[in-house]
Amino acid sequence: MGLAIIGTAGLGAAALWVAIAQGDPEAGQRPSEGVLFGIWRVFYDTEMPAPRVLLAAVGVALLLAAGVAGLERRLLDRARRSEDSDRMPLAPKLVMAQTRGEYAGPVTITVLIPAHNEEGCISETLASLLSQSLPPARVVVVADNCTDATVRLAEEAGVEVFETVGNTHKKAGGLNQSLARVLPGQGDNDCVMIMDADTTLDPGFLEGAARRLTDDRALMAVGGLFYGEDGFGLIGQFQRNEYTRYQRDLRRRRGRVFVLTGTASVFRPRALRAVAEERGKILPGVPGDVYDTVALTEDNELTIALKTLGALMISPSECTVVTEVMPSWSGLWAQRLRWQRGALENLGAYGMRPQTFRYWMQQLGIGYGVIALASYLALIILMLLATSAWVWFPFWVGIGLVFTLERVVTVWRGGWKARLLGLSLFPELFYAMFLNVVFLKGIVDLSLARQATWKHIVQPDSGVRTED
Which conformational region is residue 310 in: left (phi greater than 0), alpha (psi within -120 to 50 degrees), or beta? Predict the structure, then answer.
């Protein structure tokens, strides 16, 4: 990995040097002229940018990519080698030293399922759990203010039910109550999995997670790779394509975690106890709580908390789950706005720390993508309005073809429907613009200090209300 980073930086520097060494640019031909709305003169050029300009752009991009990757690797190595038990109590080197020569028994997994009126999906979720190749040690449905048949269905399935008392903090509050009861009795290898009630596990999930935790006692958490359920037409396929690309990114990172997804993630008790102990100290939140009840995206916040404490985490390819997709654009808007707003609020709560560096870079990258895509589309519209006939811009057509190729390649594992949608340029651009508008709305709401609220999505096939 180090050689790859050095090589990328070297290529970027060489490209930039060659571009600068070519001297002053040559004078080009005069651009063509159009008129917009009869009053605004617009100039355009159908020729591609000069090779030196393209070379300089490639060089800068490679240098930036190498810089971010190099800094991330340095921060990761620092966490793994840390011996600072006050600031990084979960650093692998410390955990390995503290557990050397001790046998805490085989890895077991207790599953907690937060549920609020989930009668439409809880039975399928429990069935996927109880049919695992490695059975869970316990299954506890955390029923939070349920008014439907969730509790009855869970009891009929033969699992434990924990009903919250006076909880006003949604999913995070319910999990804090149940963890306060479960964690004290857990040994070092008696792990806890948190999974959503609308998620079904592939049969080998628990076995794969247990094997990873058995092989590496410094490993603090195992996250799941999720892909979308079938159905719901075009909007469902958009989301499945998005999840397929996310899986591809994680595979290329060899399982290094972006977010310990709330769909299904397994934690060592040591990790959850350390988070609860550091709340109100080096972590935001109430002392003694595992989850920060203020955070809109509790899974993202917990990931950052564990990284801050030096924890080693992975999302291996053998731990996969199926999660629901939003059935409507309004439901998708509410879900993604919550995710985006929550991510921004998490970063604001933690500030610029080494452990949050990559997350800040991701948000800046999304912001750049918003500007770049909006500018690309705006220039196409401007050209169409300013000219009386269609003008082919070979360079920008080529850019569109590169975008289309990337869309197809990155969803190849998703099957022919995913590839066909990826091949359609403008629907994919529309979905990208939809996500960009969500990003902007999240920034505006946060800037204006608008109150964030939880939404509920009504599944059209069952009429069940589900927290997004």
Answer: left
Measure the CA–CA gap between 429 and 424, rounded to whole angstroms: 9
421 within 8 A of 404, measured Cβ to Cβ? no
Question: Buried b vs exposed e over 290-301: b needs ≥16 C-beta within 10 Å?
Answer: bbbbebbbbbbb
Q: What is the DSSP letter of 27?
A: P
Q: Report how far residue 91's alpha carbon sits from residue 84's, in angstroms, rounded to the nearest whole number.
A: 8
The DSSP bridge partners found for residue 458 are: 465
Q: Tens digit of pLDDT for each residue in 203-259? A: 999 999 999 999 999 999 999 988 899 999 999 999 999 999 988 888 887 777 888
**Distance (Å) of CA 346 to CA 155, 352, 436, 467:** 36, 11, 19, 20
How far is Cα 396 from Cα 375, in angstroms, rounded to an integer?
Answer: 12
Residue 441: Cβ-neighbour burial (10 angstroms; 0-12, 13-18, 19+): middle
pTM of the model as a whole: 0.84
What's the token pair of residue 347? 């970063």
Q: Which tokens hold the place of 73?
A: 């690797």
- DSSP for 263-279 reads TEEEE-HHHHHHHHHHB
Q: What's the chain's Rg over C-alpha atoms?
A: 25
Q: Which of 279, 281, 282 is nearest to 291 (CA)?
A: 279
